[in-house]
Amino acid sequence: MSSDNTPAPKNFIRQIIEEDLASGKHTSIHTRFPPEPNGYLHIGHAKSIVLNFGIGEDYNGSTNLRFDDTNPAKEEEAFVEAIKEDVRWLGYHWSDLRFASDYFEQLYDYAVELIEAGKAYVCDLSADEVREYRGTLTEAGRESPYRNRSVAENLDLFARMRGGEFEDGTRTLRAKIDMASPNMNMRDPTLYRIRHGLVHHQTGDAWCIYPMYDFTHPISDAIEGITHSLCTLEFEDHRPLYDWVLDNISIACHPRQIEFARLNLEYTVMSKRKLTQLVSEGHVNGWDDPRMPTIAGLRRRGYTPESIRQFCNVIGVTRSDSTVEMGVLENAIRSDLDVHAPRRMAVLRPLKVVITNYPEDQVESLQGPNHPKNEAMGTRELLLTREIYIDREDFREEANKKYKRLVLGKEVRLRNAYVIRADEVIRDEVGEIREIHCSYDPETLGRNPEGRKVRGVIHWVSAGKGIPAQIRLYDRLFRVPTPGKDGDFLSDLNPESLSVLTDCVVEPSLARVEAGARFQFEREGYFCRDIEDADDGRPVFNQVVSLRDSWGG
Ligand code: ATP
Ligand code: MG
Predict the structure, then answer these.
(1) Tell me: the pLDDT tens digits for 119-143?
(2) What average pLDDT score do residues 6-33 get?
(3) How does DSSP classify residue 501?
(4) 236 — phi, psi (to 5°)?
(5) Residue 453 annotated as catalytic
(6) Whose CA is nearest to atom 18 of ligand 1?
(7) Is 465 a catalytic residue?
(8) Are 460 and 436 in contact (CB under 8 A)?
(9) Helices (H) and strands (E) in the chain — how many of each?
């Protein structure tokens, strides 16, 4: 990505590619990202996207987006569209958009080739029987009684499978490899199965037999001229089958499969099955809930594409499985927003302050810098009035010297404004603090009072001019680093992962900001304007991340 500040770090896959270019084995590099459209993309997919598309860009090659859509029972057009949006949002451009289902006819022809060569057969064993015949890791399997059917009979049966003559589960097409192989994947794996009554989002009802992943994937890669087929480590044991398929059909291209470790993140889950369950059972508010590790969730939370790419570069690509701390992801967005997010003031838990010596109807226009370290970002207008809000946490009737906020009888500075002193606490009938009466020193705008030391600086918003808002604070979605380790992952959900603060007040300059706009609310953290307003019409701001790492220890 040209817009990133750091180049992608070298890794063992890039090393292989550079050697292949240097040796002349390849003159251009072609990769693909092959999601199954059965859910939304998550941060683990981002690792694969950054790897595949990053290589396509850096080696003057190309990268296809290919939907691995061979299981119509779980796949949907809506997921196809969401995945395309997420890849684009991450900043990548595919050369070709493909569907494995584009190749159904070719795949069928290659299956016929295997049958003609005596390397595949139609098997009548049921799924349970196939499992039983397969043997175990310590015991060789047994050959199917249908293994030695003639080529003619296999061709006939396979054509009739396609023709819809047989029920689901009654027949499969299997590769004829080696029932004694120490690699279970090589014990006559299934290549095709019968699935009636499904509507495929691309091919409709044209097919009632569907090819398996291990047959579809190598051929799709080869058809597209992929040079390096990058996948996660659990496919290492499938590589012999990937190679077997390509070695036994008449296709010239033979991509090299290379495996890398999947990304695991603490305090969340990444399997699409589990994410689907969180959504369908209402544990979260949809795929783009800001607590979700999906790309859509991270986007709504306020992550930038740059921060996600940066995160992927920081974690790197290796062959050893590991679990990354959530703090690493958060650091990526924090350091991005620290540089780019304009500063604003927002009061999350309002406490009214009346500045008793401030003129009743005065509205004073002050200026606050948008960024303390970047003058080029300019300033925004702040409106000071006699009544303002400060945060409840920023006032105490008594406190020791470590408390650098407003204390009864003591002074504090209002950020970008004057020094005030707390004179009196006004209580309601039940004794709760209702408001604080303060006085301000008009000589302290932009300069320190003479001969007195002010404890600290707090943020504030004009009571009359501020904008009511809803602010949503997020905590980890799960209470434990590895959800589901000791039982059902749902029982590890954090019941306090979302806190909704409904009575916040934000500074007037936030009256009209676009969905997705990100800010630092001074002393509070980074926040992002949500895509929807609250039910009561107030704008909603999502907490992206705290100001400092709160995960350690
Ligand atoms: P899940 O188990 O969540 O369903 P999957 O691997 O089945 O994941 P796919 O849609 O098939 O999901 O994945 C598309 C690509 O993304 C594959 O190449 C896969 O290896 C890669 N990928 C998926 N999850 C991760 C992860 N956690 N880390 C790195 N790459 C991943
Ligand atoms: Mg999959």
Answers:
(1) 999 999 999 999 999 999 999 999 9
(2) 94
(3) E
(4) -55, -45
(5) no
(6) 231
(7) no
(8) no
(9) 12, 29
